[in-house]
Amino acid sequence: MPSIESFNAGYSRREVLRIGGFGAMGLSLARLFELEAAAGITSSRKAIINVHLDGGPPQHETIDPKPHAAAEIRGEFGAISSALPGVHIGELMPKLAMEADRWALIRSLTGSVGRHDAFQCQSGYSAKDLSSFGGRPAMGCVVAKLFGQADDPAPAFIDIMQGRPLARNSARPGFLGPAYQPFRPDISHMFHRELEQGMKSELARLGEHHALSLELDGSLTLARLDRRSQLLNGFDRLREEIDASGMMDAMNSFHQQATGILTSGKLAAALDLSREDPRIVQRYTAPSHSEELASYTSDGPTSPQKFLLARRLIEAGARVVSVSISDFDTHSNNFGRMKTLLPIVDYGLSVLVSDLEERGMLDDVTIVAWGEFGRTPKINAKGGRDHWPSVGPCLITGGGLKTGQVIGETDRHAAKAVNRPVTYKDVFATLYRTLGIEARDITLTDPQGRPQYVLDEGEVISELV
Fold this sequence. Notes:
Elements: H1 4-8, H2 13-19, H3 29-39, E1 47-54, H4 71-74, E2 79-81, E3 88-90, H5 94-98, E4 104-110, H6 119-123, H7 139-147, E5 157-159, H8 164-167, H9 197-205, H10 222-226, H11 228-245, H12 247-250, H13 253-264, H14 266-271, H15 278-283, H16 305-316, E6 320-326, H17 334-358, E7 365-370, E8 374-375, E9 387-388, E10 392-398, E11 405-407, E12 409-410, E13 417-419, E14 422-423, H18 424-434, E15 443-445, E16 451-453
Parallel strand pairs: 1-6, 1-7, 4-11, 4-14, 5-6
Antiparallel strand pairs: 2-3, 4-10, 7-10, 8-9, 12-13, 15-16
């Protein structure tokens, strides 16, 4: 067992976390942090923005066009050259094509369980895995367990997904329990996403605490947080009253964190886009040639501002932020809907990467954009593409990863991977690595007291590191 002196000899956080994960022979998390503190190791500000393309993005219209396939496969849109020699992108994503050297394009994402939510894109696992113990935790919940502290000014994991991922509680803590659930602020007043009728009842069944507002009681609201004079006059007294009464000791970790968030006001400020430079807000607004949404369930031209929120939340201290853009569930009118929706995604991702780079954050923040599966190669009778778990697209950049490359290859119909298949767990192993976590080495304790590896399989994508 390594001593404190050996940690002082220069172990990195990644090495410490690896050593801390060997089950019964490893270190407890508390002991791990003690050794880190003794070694002078502090948490980095590495972070993840996980963009879920809600409904399942089509590989043909995004990063794997098949211009030489028959019309019923290739669809209505063409392919355009990119910044990578010999690599073509769907014509609806011209910014991605021009900036392809800034991204890694994974064309061979396989292993989808075919479930219509975002859980696999949040955890790497099927919802059935360890379901008798509450299921596997989302990545953000794992990061909250490993890195989160009760006095953090912002939660480690913030979920601002809407639509299907919200209604199906995709970013859930699983066997870690409710103390590690994501902080899920209600952003519906900022971005309206109409739910399908059946999902409205699903969301209602989750209860009023599924979305978390910034309040501990009726007198402490987001509106009050926005009034700086009341912040200055009221929160100092609130701190004193809480400490004097011993409430902080009595609260569980979640309530402690909520109180810390409220009294700092940092998270509330991050969620308030009126505090952002209006020119930046406008920069995150996609050009629009139509006032109509692609579908009543689709996001519109202001939806890239969700990426701006994610950037602000990371600046406030979040480590993982999950975002969604809807609605890629195109069983009908795939081409009409993609003609409106894909340019919005293309524009938003481009602005996000440029903004992070200009702020010196891109090497610390990893962006992944993907969905629960791809879409069928053959176009159906309604002009749509149906669910296709066999293969799908994935975009990744930032975090110090090696970009400017295509990983994997599909057959002539983009129906299956024929070279270098990449699984969801491979992507997560890579995402965890950018945070300094070796997910195949670290264990978490389930309710039966047994160690469970953060990832039970999956390999870091070697081309990216």
